[in-house]
Amino acid sequence: MQILYVTPTCKGGSFCMSLKKANVKEREPVAQTQQQQVKFLKGLVLPPLLTALVALSPLSTPPVSLGGTIDAQKGNTLFGHACIGCHVGGGNIIQPGATLFLKDLQRNGVETEEEIYRITYYGKGRMPGFGEKCTPRGQCTFGVRLREDEIKLLAEFVKSQADQGWPDIENSEE
Predict the structure, then answer these.
(1) Would you tell me which CATH number, out of the four given (1.10.240.10, 3.30.450.40, 1.10.760.10, 3.20.20.70), belongs to the domain 66-163?
(2) Could you tell me the pTM of the whole model?
(3) Of 79, 92, 97, which Cα lies nearest the Cα of 155?
(4) How far apart are CA 171 and CA 153, in angstroms?
(5) Using one digit for the tens of pLDDT, what is the confidence trace for 88-108?
(6) Locate the Cytochrome c domain: which residues (predicted)?
């Protein structure tokens, strides 16, 4: 059986085509051979390639702790500017029973980042609020107010430090 097919015949930017006749029976063995070659190559190359990809995948993505280290550095710097006056090393020089150590946080009903965020933003007891929209004014700091993202970072930092017992963090930004 003969069929017609179109092939490009010109090089460059012009559009040229020609019609050619082909015998379908002659092309079938070639197509079948090509399919067999592709199957063979898939079977030969694909398994080792996938194995190598899976084995090397941890090397191609940064470790989870890298992002945590960067945030810990930023949190530590922010803590040093806004909180260190009262909460040196997670303690509390104003009110010793309200430290940032895990046992005191739990005893005072502050166990989540959200609760730490709320107290940092609005204040509680002797601790002033640091949020931009903190009210009433007497409960809020008279110093520089913090943005929401900064307070969120502080809450994450404080919770992480409390969970780890307040280990020292090297601060490379100072």
Answers:
(1) 1.10.760.10
(2) 0.59
(3) 79
(4) 16
(5) 999 999 999 999 999 999 999
(6) 70-162
